[in-house]
Design goal:
Layout: E1 8-13, H1 17-25, E2 31-36, E3 48-51, E4 54-57, E5 63-64, H2 68-76, E6 83-84, E7 91-95, E8 98-101, E9 106-107, E10 110-111, H3 114-120, H4 125-132, H5 148-156, H6 158-173, H7 182-185, H8 187-193, H9 199-207, E11 240-243, H10 250-258, E12 261-263, E13 268-274, E14 277-282, E15 289-293, E16 295-298, H11 302-309, H12 316-323, E17 327-338, E18 350-352, E19 361-366, H13 367-370, E20 378-385, H14 398-413, E21 421-432, H15 438-450, E22 455-457, H16 467-487
Parallel strand pairs: 1-2, 1-16, 2-12, 7-18, 16-22
Antiparallel strand pairs: 3-4, 5-11, 6-11, 7-8, 9-10, 13-14, 14-15, 17-20, 17-21, 18-19, 19-20
Helix pairs in contact: 1-10, 1-16, 2-16, 5-6, 8-9, 11-12, 12-15
């Protein structure tokens, strides 16, 4: 494969993990790359700062090690020696005033073993009896996409949805199961369900055979972009990983390794076709700057991407589909306590809270337990607040929001006294919602972008909101741009 002309120039709009990864994948390809980030820093939802003197992520705090993209990229930028793995990934559901262990054999809350579900006590006797009907119910034909809550509820009843599936998916997307797409949020289960009448059997087929006594089972969970507790129920080695100095250290290392020119406080206000490529208008209206490039990668949230492509001739369908993607806001409240403030030793990586229980906190991560390298005589707890449609609670000021989170933590764990340090991190419009029809929207966006010479998109809005998925989308976008540059006419030397 030939390299693009050495005078080719590419602009990447957005300096989050996807944009920086795209820049890294373009390195050494004979392309001059500029990353334009509108905020004062790069990294997007990857950020780290100290709480009580301990470096703790303020955004995503783990990535799936089972997907190779994240770990491979960390190694490629020279951070392999900083990889760290959890001491435990066992999580609980805190519901009806008690911690209840997640069943080992469940796939994002969809049970594969009703005996384990019964022993967990998460659902009532009536809810358990309704869930068992899955084995006898006829197969449900799906004509196109359907909401997770609708399909899983038809198989198991609403209680399994409310007390198991919703906390897990809510932890990942801060979304609602009656809106989230079955095909987009649980693609493996959606595919497996087509070959099984019973949804429990379909879930079991993804988990492998049951573990022998004393062994561990495959964990069906994941980790949220906000860094909530792992949801698998079983302690499975090497499911998750992080960096010893926080995943927030990855963006700077990635930017350096990419060799790209990275600019912050460089808001792109307009995107337009030019005679031989694209023209970007950057900066304030009073003092605009124009940048001409051969290709553009949009690595920013869907709504601002929609506004940029809307005026481009032939891109209206992509703009409309991008505008359909909603975003949820949330906050991470990080609290540090002396170990003695807890009446009993903390075990497990954290807990999830069903929305039906009406609590402010939807999930908690016991960071210094989950990540032993952080242990420093204190317990650091990350508490996640905010779901789609619950923006009112986020209108409170930092002190009040931290107090509400601390009160929920005290109710769950019995911790006494005030935290020795507090950090409130707000992620306004931070989590894209993969609602029903999401895969069709993504297909329309990509098809329309492909019809625009030298335009590609990537990021959390498309193929998954976890770090490995964002990196995979970045590689796809970089490859698309390289393919275009290899076939276009050479650009005159400047």
């Amino acid at each position: 494969m030939s390299s693009p002309d050495r005078h080719s120039r590419v602009a990447i709009v957005g300096g989050g993990i996807a944009g920086l990864a795209a820049a890294f994948f373009l390195r050494g390809k004979g392309v001059a790359v500029t990353v334009l980030e509108g905020s004062p820093r790069i990294g997007g939802k990857l950020s780290v700062s100290e709480v009580a003197g301990i470096a703790v992520d303020a955004g995503a705090e783990a990535l799936l090690a089972r997907r190779p993209e994240g770990v491979d990229l960390i190694r490629a930028v020279g951070l392999a020696d900083r990889l760290a793995y959890p001491g435990t990934t066992a999580a609980s559901i805190w519901t009806r005033g008690q911690f209840r262990s997640l069943p080992r054999r469940q796939f994002m809350g969809v049970p594969a073993d009703f005996g384990e579900l019964e022993r967990s006590g998460i659902v009532s006797r009536a809810g358990l009896d309704r869930a068992r009907q899955d084995a006898a119910l006829p197969a449900i034909a799906r004509d196109g996409d359907v909401a997770v809550g609708e399909y899983v509820g038809a198989r198991f009843g609403t209680e399994v949805v409310d007390r198991l599936v919703e906390p897990l998916l809510g932890g990942v997307y801060a979304g609602r199961t009656d809106q989230l797409s079955f095909e987009a949020t649980l693609p493996a289960l959606a595919q497996a369900s087509r070959g099984h009448r019973s949804l429990a059997e379909a879930a079991g087929s993804l988990l492998g055979p049951p573990a022998s006594a004393g062994g561990t089972a495959s964990a069906g969970g994941t980790v949220s972009p906000g860094g909530t507790a792992s949801a698998g129920g079983a302690s499975t080695p090497a499911v998750f990983t992080t960096l010893t100095d926080g995943l927030g250290a990855l963006p700077e290392a990635l930017a350096r390794a990419s060799g790209a020119a990275v600019r912050t406080k460089a808001t792109v206000r307009e995107l337009a076709r030019a005679a031989d490529g694209w023209r970007l208008t950057v900066g304030p209206t009073a003092a605009p700057e124009w940048i001409d490039v051969d290709a553009v990668i949009l690595a920013l949230p869907a709504r601002p991407a929609s506004r940029l492509v809307q005026p481009v001739a032939g891109a209206g369908l992509a703009a409309a589909a991008l505008a359909e993607i909603e975003y949820a806001s949330m906050a991470i409240i990080t609290l540090a306590y002396p170990a003695a403030a807890f009446p009993a030793p903390i075990t497990g990586s954290g807990y999830l809270v069903p929305a039906v229980d009406g609590r402010t906190v939807k999930a908690a991560t016991f960071s210094t337990v989950k990540w032993p390298h952080l242990a420093d005589g204190l317990h650091v707890i990350r508490l996640s607040v905010g779901r789609i449609g619950e923006e009112a609670v986020l209108q409170r000021d930092d002190a009040e929001l931290a107090a509400l989170a601390a009160a929920d933590l005290a109710a769950a764990t019995g911790v006494t006294g005030s935290p020795v340090d507090t950090r409130v991190t707000r992620w306004g419009g931070g989590l894209p919602q993969y609602t029903v029809g999401h895969l069709d929207r993504v297909s329309r966006i990509r098809a329309c972008a492909a019809a625009q010479p030298g335009l590609a998109v990537c990021g959390a809005a498309f193929d998954g909101i976890g770090i490995p998925a964002c990196i995979a989308s970045a590689r796809l976008a970089a490859d698309q741009v390289l393919d275009y540059l290899e076939t276009r006419a050479p650009r005159p030397a400047p």
